[in-house]
Q: What sequence folds into this?
């Protein structure tokens, strides 16, 4: 038989084995299909970075019509669920018990202030334990008050005009829904798990069960060993990606503005970089438990925290921003956010794609160099 | 001296494997480097079975892995079929069949799929496969199971499938690393049949490693390795010749147990080795001769001592240096009277255990008396461990009665547990803790404290020779010492009943001998011992035993009663293994008349 025929025969053998194992092992199916769905549902439905129906206490120490109008504005806002209270003391008690997240206090000299064209005092107190949420609530409250001022001015009533009138417009994610931001990011997380964790685990499992030793003594070549491990999990990862995109677009109505082929090519690059990293871990670690730990710490956690998936990298300290450049997920989060919400913006996509290509080449060639047909590392 | 037994060598072309001055040192980041092989040279010939025989840590696996190209030698070379193991690794790997210790099977693939995988990897042409598969399946008896998952096969069948996979491309040479470990006697015998067939019909060369000394006799050429060095090589006959007439068989007089004579002889001057075989004590002496045995035994112990032809095992024991074999049991010599009492401490009646549809134990009835050594024998998957776990209160009982130390395990398992010690099959101590810390922890877990704990720990250091390892992490202990530590931990709270699950599996012949002496000692002090083992010859050390297979009891009785089951004209002096094979194959009727056995023992 020719060398080529032998190569294909060995590849066929090892790929079919991997495929059968994936099909029969519930844990790899779970990681590729069930986990993406679970994560999507949690992030799509449960976790949202927006604040809705915030319980808010409203205390009117001034009973004038203008004060009541302000209170009504809060009642009508979709962001707040108001609770009218007679005294500040009661409101503070509720805030302490965490039954409300904030207090709107229209103070007693409110109408007087308005009439004299002096600043009309409205006090907004917010529970600041979760600083991000507090800032959001604060923003919403300011928005409600500004709206009220606008309406008042439109009616020709006098108000103290702000020096600058800010007109807000949000681009790309017009409805400013965090779901549109989270779902594309999640795809990164899912592909990282399959590429790094699953790849590292299956190789370690072969070492533990002693099958690796039996495979190594066959005339299999190193390149075949590498392809045999990368290809199946590459395909599995791409399937997980496809599934997530489909669910995201159809079920959560996340906009997808890029092209499918760009998504396919760019996620293939990311998947190769992840699998390469997983293989690199597996070449050094032959125990499943340790492989899982290392994959989580070196692969999953950076993909979660250092990729811009949850925390905006622009607002992190310089050191962390520098470190984040070695995390492949960082580039793909950028790519997927762009593809979903802005479209094929090549000036953004291209540098990220090049970074991923570089990482894929580096990780896979390192893994190839580390793959040995000897037992000793 | 190594080449003293070197036989005449056949023409150089017949050499399929040549090892020359092989050295291998494993360096670790932490801890000292380990010299696994030191200046080893040997040849393996076409059409022969060459056996690598040695205890744990002898370097057998390292040598075989080096030949398979998995390990690069530190110095020296291995040439397989004319190819160097480091330079032409791929050439060797496409011509050699190799079966690693764990058989290298994918548990979640079927028999056929495993064979397909290895056929693809070895590049077996599709046109040859049908014929090849047929032959291998027939040879291994796996024909009816081609669609079964490898993980669902019995130990013996896995081993045969592993062999079939390594033979998928008609190799010119076969490397087998401890192929018979953990496999029942019937499967072992079948494996040897296949190996002989390959050697005789196909003329391939086989290099096989084993720690079973009786298997060495089946090899054409034996190389004895010990701690990385080659001690000797030759045919089994040449090995035996060297021992000469220095093997004695001691037939105990009525009223004296073989075990007592055995314990007495061990470690005495001129006595190199003593074992119990078929109810007699087999003793190997040094050049002084077998009169040493009669000289050593006390005058009031009449025993017939006669010379017997040596076995390979005798030769092996004389060859290897006896560093730590001197083992004394205090006050043993006075304890002539049997310590077995009438009181029944373990009792089961119609004990059953089912896991879903699968009945692992199908109605066992047996009694164990105080001070008795009771053996549960059977191949892997017979239900020994399941029975055991029920006895220790670790598994619930599906049906039947079970009582241990007077407590019904179905109602008060924790009370019973405080009276028993349990040593699990796998090493179950904390490998990062030192010997002292492990003992301290297990002592406290059993409720010991203060002076009492200190005393018991001192006792353990003394009794098990663990004193010098006191501060060493358990992971770093040599194999035999790990087993000692595990046993010490299970004995700290002075249990009345000791349960030992496969205590000697994976333990080399030297450590096994020592282990049984110790067990004897505890039994003589009135501790009841229940032990499982798949080493048939070890059951000679038991007072009584139960042989089980597929969850059922095949036979029950003393070693001599069991042996008697297989006695026939052709085989007037059968071993326990013969009896087991006869029972398993159904050529003798199972004897499970529990009452008769109980009564016959009661008379003594």
A:
């Amino acid at each position: 038989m020719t060398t080529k025929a032998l190569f294909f025969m060995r590849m066929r053998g090892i790929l079919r084995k991997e495929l059968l194992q994936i099909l029969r092992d519930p844990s790899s199916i779970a990681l590729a299909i069930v986990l993406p769905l679970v994560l999507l549902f949690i992030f799509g439905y449960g976790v949202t970075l927006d604040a809705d129906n915030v319980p808010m206490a409203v205390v009117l120490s001034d009973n004038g019509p203008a004060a009541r109008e302000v209170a009504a504005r809060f009642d009508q806002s979709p962001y707040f669920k108001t609770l009218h209270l007679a005294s500040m003391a009661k409101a503070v008690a509720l805030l302490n018990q965490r039954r409300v997240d904030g207090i709107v206090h229209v103070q007693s000299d409110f109408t007087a202030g308005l009439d004299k064209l002096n600043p009309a005092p409205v006090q907004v107190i917010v529970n600041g334990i979760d600083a991000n949420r507090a800032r959001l609530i604060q923003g919403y409250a300011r928005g409600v008050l500004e709206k009220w001022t606008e309406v008042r001015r439109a009616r020709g009533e006098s108000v103290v005009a702000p020096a600058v009138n800010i007109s807000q417009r949000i681009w790309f994610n017009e409805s400013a829904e965090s779901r549109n931001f989270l779902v594309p990011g999640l795809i990164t997380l899912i592909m990282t798990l399959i590429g790094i964790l699953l790849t590292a685990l299956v190789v370690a499992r072969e070492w533990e069960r002693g099958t690796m030793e039996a495979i190594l003594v066959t005339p299999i070549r190193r390149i075949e060993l590498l392809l045999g491990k990368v290809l199946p999990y590459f395909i599995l990862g791409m399937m997980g990606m496809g599934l997530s995109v489909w669910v995201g677009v159809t079920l959560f109505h996340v906009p997808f503005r890029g092209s499918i082929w760009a998504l396919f090519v760019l996620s293939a690059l990311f998947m190769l970089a992840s699998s390469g990293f997983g293989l690199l871990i597996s070449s050094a670690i032959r125990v499943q438990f340790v492989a899982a730990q290392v994959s989580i710490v070196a692969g999953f956690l950076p993909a979660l925290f250092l990729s811009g998936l949850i925390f905006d990298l622009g607002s992190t300290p310089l050191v962390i921003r520098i470190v984040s450049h070695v995390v492949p997920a960082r580039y793909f989060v950028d790519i997927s956010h762009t593809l979903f919400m802005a479209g094929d913006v090549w000036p953004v996509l291209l540098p990220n794609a090049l970074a991923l290509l570089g990482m894929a080449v580096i990780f896979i060639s390192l893994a190839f160099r580390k793959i040995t047909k000897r037992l000793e590392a | 001296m190594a080449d003293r037994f070197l036989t005449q060598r056949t023409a150089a072309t017949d050499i399929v494997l040549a090892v020359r001055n092989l050295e291998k040192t494993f360096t670790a980041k932490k801890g000292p480097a380990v010299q696994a092989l030191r200046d080893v040279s040997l040849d393996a010939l076409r059409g022969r079975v060459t056996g690598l025989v040695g205890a744990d840590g002898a370097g057998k696996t390292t040598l075989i892995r080096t030949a398979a190209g998995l390990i690069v030698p530190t110095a020296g070379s291995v040439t397989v079929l004319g190819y160097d193991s480091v330079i032409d690794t791929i050439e060797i790997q496409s011509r050699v069949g190799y079966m690693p210790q764990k058989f290298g099977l994918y548990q979640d693939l079927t028999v056929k799929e495993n064979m397909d995988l290895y056929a693809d990897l070895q590049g077996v042409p599709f046109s040859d496969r049908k014929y090849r598969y047929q032959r291998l399946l027939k040879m291994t008896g796996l024909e009816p199971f081609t669609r079964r998952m490898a993980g669902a096969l019995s130990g013996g069948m896995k081993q045969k499938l592993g062999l079939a996979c390594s033979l998928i491309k008609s190799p010119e040479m076969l490397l087998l690393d401890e192929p018979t470990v953990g496999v029942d006697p019937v499967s072992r015998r079948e494996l040897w049949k296949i190996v002989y067939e390959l050697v005789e019909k196909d003329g391939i060369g086989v290099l096989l490693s084993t720690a079973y000394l009786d298997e060495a006799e089946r090899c054409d050429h034996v190389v004895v390795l010990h701690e990385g060095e080659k001690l000797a090589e030759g045919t089994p006959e040449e090995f035996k010749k060297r021992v000469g007439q220095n093997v004695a068989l001691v037939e105990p007089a009525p009223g004296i147990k073989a075990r007592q004579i055995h314990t007495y002889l061990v470690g005495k001057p001129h006595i190199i080795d003593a074992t119990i075989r078929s109810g007699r004590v087999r003793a190997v002496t040094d050049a002084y001769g077998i009169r040493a045995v009669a000289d050593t035994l006390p005058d009031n112990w009449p025993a017939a001592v006669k010379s017997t032809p040596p076995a390979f095992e005798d030769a092996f024991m004389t060859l290897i240096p006896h560093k730590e074999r001197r083992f004394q049991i205090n006050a043993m010599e006075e304890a002539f009277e049997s310590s077995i009492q009438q009181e029944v401490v373990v009792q089961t009646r119609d004990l059953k255990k089912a896991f879903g549809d699968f009945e692992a134990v199908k109605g066992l009835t047996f009694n164990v008396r105080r001070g008795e050594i009771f053996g549960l024998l059977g191949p892997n998957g017979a239900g020994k461990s399941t029975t055991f776990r029920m006895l220790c209160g670790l598994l619930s009982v599906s049906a039947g009665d079970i009582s241990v130390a007077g407590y019904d395990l179905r109602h008060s398992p924790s009370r019973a547990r405080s009276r028993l010690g349990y040593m699990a099959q796998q090493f179950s101590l904390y490998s990062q803790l030192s010997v002292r810390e492990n003992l301290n922890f297990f002592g406290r877990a059993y409720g010991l404290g203060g002076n009492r704990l200190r005393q018991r720990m001192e006792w353990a250091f003394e009794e098990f020779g663990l004193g010098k390892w006191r501060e060493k992490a358990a992971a770093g202990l040599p194999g035999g010492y790990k087993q000692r530590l595990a046993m010490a931990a299970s004995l700290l709270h002075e249990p009345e009943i000791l349960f030992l699950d496969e205590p000697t599996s994976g333990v080399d012949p030297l450590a096994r001998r020592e282990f049984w002496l110790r067990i004897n000692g505890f039994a003589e002090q009135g501790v009841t011992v229940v032990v499982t083992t798949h080493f048939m010859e070890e059951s000679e050390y038991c007072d009584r035993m139960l042989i089980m297979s597929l969850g059922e009891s095949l036979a029950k009785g003393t070693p001599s009663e069991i042996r008697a089951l297989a006695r026939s004209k052709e085989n007037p002096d059968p071993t326990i293994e013969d009896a087991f094979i006869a029972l398993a194959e159904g050529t003798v009727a199972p004897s499970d008349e529990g009452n008769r056995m109980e009564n016959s023992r009661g008379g003594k």
Summary: The CA atoms of residues 4 and 224 of chain B lie 13 Å apart. Residues 1-12, 324-336, 593-604 of chain B have pLDDT under 50 and may be disordered. The first strand of chain B starts at residue 15 and ends at 26. Chain B touches chain A through 36 residues (CB under 8 Å).
